[in-house]
Amino acid sequence: MLLVFAITAGVIFASGVYLMMRRSMVRLIIGLLLVSYSVNLILFSVDDSGTRGAPIINSAEVEVMSDPLPQALILTAIVISFGVLAFTLALGYRATQVAGTDNIDTLQSTDREI
Question: How far apart are CA 74 and CA 91, in angstroms?
């Protein structure tokens, strides 16, 4: 099962990097989303939830208790990726509105030297 997670995360990560290398702001944002999803999947695969129980403290079954740290890391990564997505969407919308295009090469040519 971990091999399936690893292959899936690798394909999603590679797709995200490929989209981030394109010249469109929309594809850059979608690529950023895919990379964050693949990181969440990698963090999920760290936890061996198939063989262990719920992360509830029970004095009789401490050895079979699941580790709650990967779950907390995934929740934190989801919140951080949502914040980054909101900022990137606002930044991309404003840059597209000012430049009139979502082509990143055109956006780079509108930079001013100080």
Answer: 25
